[in-house]
Amino acid sequence: MKTLAIIILTWAVFNIQSSAQTAKHDTLLIQKIDSMFKADQFWRKEYAKAVKKVPTQYDQETIESKWAESDSINEVKAKAIINKYGYPGYNLAGGKSDTFFWIIQHCDDDIPFQEKVLRLLKIEVAKNNASKENYAYLTDRILANKKQKQIYGTQVRTDPKTHKSTPLPLKYPKSVNALRKKMGMGTEEEYLKSFQ
Known about the structure:
Blueprint: H1 2-24, H2 27-51, H3 60-85, H4 90-93, H5 96-105, H6 111-126, H7 132-145, E1 156-158, E2 165-167, H8 176-182, H9 188-193
Antiparallel strand pairs: 1-2
Helix pairs in contact: 2-3, 2-5, 5-7, 6-7
């Protein structure tokens, strides 16, 4: 009977905590991130269509111009979000926390901003409030942007002739899979296959 009471009490505390976390979700922030991500992806998809010679209603020049414009607008919005909330973790943005990461990943023209976000993301990862995998991706992105060797092998180049994908230079090539595993990621070989 005592065991049953402890189980019920534990369940009640867990549900109260879960409800409290859910109640913290910022609906307006979630909608804003969703809108930003749609803009982020739209022009990238149009670019992919153009490259694959799939019909698109936009010419290459328009796509590239709008893509740059969209990234610039999203960067301004992302900076406002970071200044107001810090890194929006799962407790605040739910699954859109991962979506927000992709917008940050595309702020390549402001490496100090990406580094600031990486520091904030690290804090949320330590609290299990953000993705370790996203932390790995952003770490590598910053290193690649600074022309340094990456750690987790997330940044890849694809040969336009052979279509073979290879990682940008690695700092620890022999232990890349062990490092990836610590971040909840599959092997480098599996990752590279996904580009084929």
